[in-house]
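Deviations from the work plan: none for this task. Representative record:
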Amino acid sequence: MDCLTSVYHQFWDQTRNGLTLGSIYAMIALGYTMVYGVLQLINFAHSEVFMVSTVITLYAFRNWFGVDHPLGGILLVLVLLGALAAAMLASGVTAMTLERFAYRPLRRRGAPRLAFLISAIGASLTIQYLFVLMDGRHYILWFKLPALLGPSPQPIPTVMETHTAFTLFGTAVTNKAILVVAAAALMMFLLDRFVTKTRLGRGIRAVAQDTETASLMGVNIDRVIVTTFFVGGVMAGAAGLLYVLFLGVPAFWFIGFVPGIKAFTAAVLGGIGNIRGAMLGGLVLGMVEAYSVPCFGAQWTDVVSFVVLVLVLMFRPTGILGEQVRA
Amino acid sequence: MRFRNNVLRVVAVVAILMLVGTACKKKSSTVTPGTTGTTGPTGATAVEKIDVTVYGQGAWTGPYNYLVLPSEQGAQLRFKECNADATFPANVTYKQADTQGSGDQAPPVAQTVVSDPNTVAVEGPAFSGETRAVGDTYNQAQIPFISQSATAVDLAQNGWDYWYRTVGNDDLQGGNDGKFEAQVIKSKKLFISNDTSDYGQPLSLTVKKLASENGVQIVGTEGIAPTDDYSAFISDVKASGADSLFYGGYDADFAKIVKQGKDAGLDINYMSGDGSLSSTFLSSAGDTAEGVYLSAPTNLGGDFIAKYNQEYGSEASSVPVYAAEGYDVAGVICEGIKAAVAGGASDPASIRAGIKTYLDSLTTDSPFQGVSKPIAFDPSTHELAAADINSLLYYYQVKGGEMSPLGNASEVLSG
């Protein structure tokens, strides 16, 4: 009973926490689910696509825009949009590069599923450690690696001051929380429209449903796959910027690991391959984690997340919304 | 098609060979201050220098490295001075044993140290967790390992004959911090938290015990492993009605807690131990670090710091935590080497034994005069032996983006 009263007392607080972080998980989960939909492959390197976005955000804020104090008004909007565009582009390109070099050669040769999996993990580790080595002191033969990140975390300048926008049901809703949820909602809405209303989106759904028939019907499979990776990467790119903005954490080569696992869990929870499932899964996972804290304490959040995942899969193996890449 | 495939295969193989070549390329990771072994300044009789190696084990790189680098810089400076001294009978090469502060990464590093025939001592390990992981290894190899900063209490309870510590432990720190919460912060409702590590957890629990003995109500105890998102934890703290939060853990994580806490409107007192006293904490927490309390058994305002800043200039850390202690451990090793050679040692193995004999000979009556404190060890536990140990625990508060000293525990606390 103590658990329930604690949850009751903190309900709106934790709902706000769960929605905010859950939105970020949802955006990353989309990358996993879309790639699975078209390729039946879990892109384990997606967490590094996310990490690249945090590094670009760092550079955008610190180097390109030279932010050294929190901004306001129109200047803040311009800086955020500029950084967002750069981060999304960088992540999208990273994802496309992954597809081109880690997966396409295997696809051409009709490699077994296991080969894709190994390649994914290898790609993930390669990108992580490449960034570890990029501290300006390491070489690949004669070529000096640029000092982009290195092994230590790099603090990101605070561009936005946090203040409470309004209080709802006793919980303070900050401007950052509103930004995260609004941005995530907008992007997911746009993605949904893209997948359901555009020709390319229809192609993605067709390839996810039945690749052979889709190609017989004239869908360019390669282009669809590249687009899928790009769009998933773009979503992860936006998630990366929102993540470091909201949590104020430094850019770090390993930053993608935990959000990647959580987002993958969210994707599976909502129904792997199902785009709306990924969105729902992210939000559900975020909220479950948040509500578990007053109940069990902060150290049990991960246990709770994975127990929920196991339970859902036991009773509904295809996830909450099922597996199809439905509109 | 076939031709293109073959070309691609050749390119792939060449790329792999290039990457292997990079890996084999010798990285400049060894630090060798003044090892040219030149004869000293004119007039001094130069001695035949024995080549020895001392390893500094700790987080040279990684997220927690600014807790360790200042002490390593102190050590490098001291070894440079020792080597430059023409009468010093050895040539010390000070090498990095980088574990990133992690107990998981420590064992292979310790293996490297132990298999190096020239090793005579280890400075460190800097953290308590990694000490636990490799203590038996060093003890069995009979290599003296002297820590400049590992404060966990249980390290002294392993019966390691070759382990020594030059700072007060977490009973000292936690005990005084508990009183600090009661007497200085005047907390009525204290929330205890830690990073579930072997360092942070016992420290926070000691604070809990002493705080409640001094009349503070403990409204929550939570361990949360290092993560990026503390929002749910912060909501929990808020709901408990606490007016003060103590966190046992490290700088990078405490910075996130403080930042996210203050962002979420949790305007209470924040305090942490020596694991958070670093430039990483200041740079990561930024403006939100203002007003945060910290404790550590190291004096940031000591006389040595001026020398440290002069030596390192732009590379000096803004928070030179344990720099003086690092300098002193190196000093004690140098004296040990001198004593060993004077006693007839001529090879690394006998120098190791000689260093241990020297360390065991230090008492509070005849200590090693370090720049941070007189150094002597308790004969049974090898803990730092000092007349007034409370005067060796220092308090700080972040003011104007800097660590402002508040005084030591003897001065600031009563009873």
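The interface with chain B takes residues 6, 9-10, 13-14, 17-18, 20-21, 137-141, 150-153, 155, 158, 162, 164, 172, 174, 176, 243, 247-250, 252, 255, 258-259, 289-290, 292-294, 297-299, 301 of chain A (CB under 8 Å).
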